[in-house]
């Protein structure tokens, strides 16, 4: 007699077969992802360090090369301009060709530029090699955030973006200190020799350990590409090769797993204008514009810091370098704290919307999820508070209060400013998970070019308006940013849904 359950299955009236679970967002193990983030963040660390370690050496360079300080300042401006242009090419190349080959190529250029800078003896070579140095390292910023989109679901990106932000934003504080200590014992060449010694360590760690993570090349990590340019020498951080078969109801029948063949890049020619095309989206333009405005404020505050403290409080060179520490400590604290807050805000928004949070498999669509509100929920408060601290900072310098007052305000500016950078960078990855490095390149272009313009006007503003009104103007820019982010918070989901219908991009 036939089993009733078997009869039901034959007749199609029995319970449906269980639906297999969706695949994980990434097959990299958690400890592998953490190690990969540490390696790429080490590379991104040099992007900021190369700029800020240079500032204390400007007077010595001018004296040794026999040129004015204003000419050496041109190398700072040119570095910033190149830092905006080259990531447009590097970011798009990383999305098309993969993260690993781009990292290796740019770091080779960077190491060569550092050695050249340590050996050069003329302003012309200094100017050219600083641009080459910027071309080599500035793109690692955008590629580093691209790896975040490769490995992590939206529910966990906030925490790891905080770790990346920590690495990328500590150099403005420790860079001048390292430079000051090197200048106490040696001359300005020691700064470039220091970079020439440390940066090959990063290059070697990437060559030996870093696997390819681009989802356009390796998918969720289960695709193993051919060629050493995509494969680590020591594959300890690569996920194990997938089995080419999977069990079925009939043990003798085995079927191959789909989509495990290496993918070829869709195009081998990077498009440097691809990042700017993303700005046609209102949401992207607002995020990038707000980031650029606050990066301009941040750059002007940092660039004027040692000069103002030297003029007002008559501090020596090494102490002037130490004045960067409160801002750096605040950035370090905020980077980790903001990452956790972003993840908490995501879970809170998901619970409010009744949306499941799957940290393992993720949801790259986010079509019905208000990701703008989730990311900006706490960032808006940071934007508003930051402007108040900036006003207080400017007038504390104008009124020549005790040096502790602007230093404390610096700490709180760093605390809020870093929260803004981390939140907006994470939102940008959420908006463009399929082209996260290209999106960060657009962000990098705008922030560097606006910062260069701000720095070009900074000295004139300080002389004509004084520190108090100059930073009031910067605070007003910050409040304008807060208004734009409020609009994005309210309208962001509606704009995305409208774009899906093709009514407007």
Automatic annotation (TrEMBL):
Membrane topology category: Multi-pass membrane protein
Subcellular location: Membrane
UniProt keyword annotations, A-Z: Membrane, Transmembrane, Transmembrane helix, Transport
Membrane-crossing residue ranges in chain numbering: 35-57, 72-90, 102-119, 160-184, 190-210, 321-342, 378-395, 407-429, 467-488
One Pfam family here: MFS_1
Regions of compositional bias (Basic and acidic residues) in chain numbering: 252-262
Domain Major facilitator superfamily (MFS) profile: 36-493
SUPFAM superfamilies per record: MFS general substrate transporter (SSF103473)
Location of region: Disordered: 240-266
Superkingdom, natural source: Eukaryota
Name the UniProt record assigns to this protein: Major facilitator superfamily transporter
Species in which this protein is naturally found: Apiospora rasikravindrae
């Amino acid at each position: 007699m036939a089993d009733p359950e078997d009869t039901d299955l034959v007749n199609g009236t029995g319970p449906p077969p269980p639906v297999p679970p969706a695949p994980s967002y990434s097959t990299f193990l958690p400890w592998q992802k953490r190690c990969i983030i540490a390696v790429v963040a080490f590379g991104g660390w040099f992007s900021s360090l190369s700029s800020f370690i240079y500032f204390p050496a400007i007077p010595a360079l001018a004296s040794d090369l026999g040129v004015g300080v204003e000419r050496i300042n041109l190398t700072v401006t040119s570095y910033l301009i190149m830092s905006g242009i080259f990531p447009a090419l590097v970011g798009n190349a990383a999305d098309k060709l993969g993260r690993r080959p781009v990292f290796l190529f740019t770091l080779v250029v960077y190491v060569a530029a550092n050695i050249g800078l340590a050996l050069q003896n003329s302003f012309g070579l200094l100017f050219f090699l600083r641009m080459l140095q910027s071309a080599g390292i500035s793109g690692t910023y955008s590629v580093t955030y691209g790896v975040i989109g490769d490995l992590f679901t939206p529910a966990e990106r906030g925490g790891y973006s905080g770790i990346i932000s920590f690495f990328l934003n500590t150099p403005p504080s420790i860079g001048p200190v390292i430079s000051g200590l090197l200048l106490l014992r040696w001359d300005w060449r020691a700064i470039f020799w220091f970079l020439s010694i440390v940066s090959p360590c990063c290059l070697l760690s990437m060559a030996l350990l870093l696997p390819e993570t681009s989802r356009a090349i390796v998918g969720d990590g289960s695709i193993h590409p051919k060629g050493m340019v995509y494969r680590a020498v020591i594959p300890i951080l690569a996920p194990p090769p997938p089995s080419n078969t999977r069990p079925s109801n009939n043990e003798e029948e085995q079927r191959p797993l789909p989509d495990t063949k290496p993918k070829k890049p869709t195009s081998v020619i990077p498009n440097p204008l691809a990042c700017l095309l993303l700005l046609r989206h209102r949401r992207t333009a607002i995020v990038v514009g707000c980031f650029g405005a606050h990066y301009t404020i941040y750059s002007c505050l940092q660039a004027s810091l040692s000069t103002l403290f030297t003029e007002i409080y008559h501090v020596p060179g090494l102490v002037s370098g130490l004045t960067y520490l409160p801002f750096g400590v605040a950035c370090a604290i905020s980077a980790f704290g903001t990452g956790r807050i972003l993840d908490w805000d995501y879970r809170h928004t998901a619970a409010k919307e009744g949306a499941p949070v799957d940290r393992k498999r993720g949801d790259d669509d986010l079509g019905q999820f208000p990701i703008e509100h989730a990311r900006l929920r706490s960032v808006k408060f940071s934007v508003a508070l930051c402007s108040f601290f900036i006003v207080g900072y400017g007038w504390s310098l104008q009124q020549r209060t005790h040096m502790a007052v602007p230093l404390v305000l610096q700490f709180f500016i760093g605390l809020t400013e870093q929260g803004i950078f981390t939140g907006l960078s994470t939102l940008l990855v959420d908006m463009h998970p399929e082209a996260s490095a290209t999106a960060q390149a657009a962000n990098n272009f705008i922030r560097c070019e606006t910062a260069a313009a701000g720095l070009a006007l900074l000295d004139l503003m300080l002389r004509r308006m004084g520190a108090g009104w100059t930073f009031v103007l910067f605070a007003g820019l910050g409040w304008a940013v807060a208004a734009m982010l409020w609009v994005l918070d309210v309208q962001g989901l509606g704009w995305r849904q409208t774009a899906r219908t093709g009514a407007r991009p």
